[in-house]
Write the structure tokens for this entry.
Amino acid sequence: MGQNQNINEILLVDDEEDIRDVLAIALTDLGYGVTMAENGQKAIKAFETRPFSIVLTDIKMPVMDGIQLLKRIKQLSPGTEIIMITGHGDMDLAIESFRNQAVEFITKPVDVSTLEKAINRAKEKIVLKQRLADYTQNLERLVRKKTEELKTVGDISAIMDTLPMVIFCVDHELRITSSNGLFKELFGDHPGALCHRICKNEESPCQGCPGLKCFLSKQPEQAEILYTTQDHREISFLAWASPVVESDDTVSEVMVMAIDISRVVDIEDHLKSLGLMIGSVSHGIKGLLTGLDGGLYVLDSALKKQDQDQAKEGLEMMKFVTAKIRKMILDILFYTKKREFNKETLSATQFAGEIIRTMKPRIEAVNLSLTVDLPPDEIEFMADSDPLNSAIINIFDNAIDACVEKRDRFPSTQDHGITFSIRQKNDQIEFAISDTGIGMTCQEIKQAFTLFHSGKGKKGTGLGLFIADKVIAQHQGTIDVTSAPNKGSIFFVRLPLT
């Protein structure tokens, strides 16, 4: 179903009549036409009759809730932008909304200025996608023109390599027949391979594959697809498939052109749109504050009894919880503010010492072992100490949680621990964090560094490894993972020495 071009018409969905009426008045005052529905099921009927570019919906509703409505509308019209409203500042709902491509998440009571900003963001995204579509159509015409010009030469690769987008061609079996430089940079050079194996690491074609649709319709098709690069990054692409039509009107190949949406719609916007993130970590900090209260109680009780051992126990509890709160806040601040990296020459031994001093009490607090393997000779490297320290600690935290989870699941297993080693490999420094934890499947490894993905369920925010990956990338480094279920994991962080 296509997207309605009128971005001044809004579908408003809420099961409370009073709220619908109040929001409708506010939207009308802002100059929007409003169609109302009292639940998700009625909203779908209204949407099927007349699609909307913008939908404003409550989450907690009978019959069909807002998350279900969000998923259904995205199936019907991927271009529609959906703003979620809730009476609960719930981080889990916010994450679930953004995972299903909501554009904004706002809480009740709805402030009119906040609502206006959310709608403006939705409109900006709609206009941006339209500009991308126009831009790509122009590129498509350019490619066709240059293809005709080069048919006598039989070489289109020079033109494909100059275009600022991923381009590849597939045959009827969806096997890659040619690709441009950017495709090879992201996915590797795999002529003859099935495109879904290379771009998605899957055995079957992508759901809604524009290439398959293009072969059937003989018309250009488009879709928003999440591809996985050869270094395990997941990138959202806006992909257009265009048929290569022969003189007998048959389609011999399909050319797919894809633009990295994340380059245009920065992931920081999603972080900021969570109110960045008072609501995002409020429940996590609330739990940690409970732990802090517990530590204070133990310490206060010990002081009254003049019990030094108990006082030490209470102090360690407070140190542990305070460090967790500090790390959580620093993770968020790191991506709410743009900052220039301040690289300096660091000693690997001193840097490792700081990591060990931070992590050792946390590891001992959950009865895990820590093995440290440092190089015999000093290694110096260039990095920004604070964010790199945070990135490594995020990986350590992941290792601790994996070990604790395995011990909880399999109490009879022994030797739960973490190994931290540093080595110089040619012109790189390599940090290796190895754990004996629960391990990960191939799919979990692919998702590990994705924003808001957490292998800890509701216990995690899905920020730690995402931020670690960003920090390492900003250092021109890489993170690689080897893991298997119940066999533990090894994270390799490699950075250039200079």
Notes: The chain has 16 helices and 17 strands. The first helix runs from residue 17 to 29. The radius of gyration is 26 Å.
